[in-house]
Write a structure and sequence with these properties.
- By secondary structure, the protein is of the alpha+beta class.
- Helix content is 27%, strand content 34%.
- The protein starts with 8 loop residues before the first helix and ends with a helix.
- The N terminus is likely disordered.
Length: 270
């Protein structure tokens, strides 16, 4: 085969668009100095009831956090995460998208993505190396049905070392990419506590975030330390969508064997 293989670019783009749209609920879209000013204004007059820094020794009864302090604590926990599992059902560009992403800070990743009528794919990443397997509908939607026939149920194996300047299909499955908005910016807008409940037995505090353009998103944050983000939901592509988070579960990745995979070089030269 000497044609230009597009392997997974649409899938990567669809997944990344959906994830970043929702995670931007926490990152906002404004400059960090605006976040700093907003935090300073809300903290003014807090006095001895201000929340202690994360990692500091807590008093016997920790003071109740203000809404924006919960948000700041959840953001710090995301920044400190060593691994994340994120599951959700999204709709991106009108396509229903079910996903299960499991990634860590060593660039190990497992991903399963089901795009309804546009097929399903499995993605494995270990550092610079990746393996991708799509079903027949996936390769047909990518306009590469001959690739599916050539792979015959095996993984397509590649490495970012071979094409460092090109868009890799697993960019959505890297923690630095996924958390980029959260790590770089803070939220500017209204933050309001709207209730308390449990998710999968975890006590959570429910918040509404109203951004400056009026979009409203919801966050569920663990009521007790560590204040992990448990669920984020909000409008994206005209549909209310949800993602659930699990923190610091080690990623267990096993690379497919040579018999289970075909290299990119073999595909392109076949």
């Amino acid at each position: 085969m000497n044609h230009r293989v597009r392997i997974g670019r649409r899938t990567a783009g669809v997944a990344a668009a959906g994830l970043l749209t929702l995670t931007a609920c926490g990152g906002g879209g404004l400059h960090a100095e605006q976040w700093t000013a907003a935090r300073a204004e809300e903290q003014a007059g807090a006095g001895p009831e201000a929340v202690p820094a994360i990692g500091a020794e807590e008093p016997a009864e920790a003071p109740e956090l203000r809404p924006r302090e919960y948000l700041a604590a959840a953001t710090e926990e995301l920044r400190a995460a060593t691994a994340l599992r994120v599951t959700g059902d999204l709709v991106v560009d009108g396509v229903p998208l079910g996903m299960d992403l499991w990634m860590d800070d060593t660039d190990a990743c497992l991903a399963s993505i089901d795009m309804a009528g546009e097929g399903a794919m499995e993605f494995i990443q270990l550092g610079d190396d990746y393996w991708l397997k799509g079903d027949e509908a996936y390769w047909a939607a990518a306009d590469e049905p001959e690739v599916e026939e050539f792979l015959d149920g095996r993984y397509l194996a590649g490495s970012s070392r071979d094409a460092p300047d090109t868009h890799m299909p697993g960019e959505f499955c890297t923690m630095d990419e996924f958390l980029g908005e959260w790590r770089a910016l803070g939220f500017v807008g209204e933050v309001a506590e709207v209730g308390r409940s449990e998710l999968d037995g975890i006590p959570v505090v429910e918040f509404e975030l109203t951004r400056l353009r009026g979009e409203v998103s919801e966050l569920h944050i663990m009521a007790e330390r560590p204040h992990h983000l448990v669920r984020v939901s909000g409008p994206a592509d005209g549909v209310h969508q949800t993602m659930d988070f699990e923190f610091n579960v080690p990623v267990e990745v096993t690379a497919p064997t040579d018999e289970e995979s075909v290299s990119m070089a073999e595909l392109l030269g076949g």
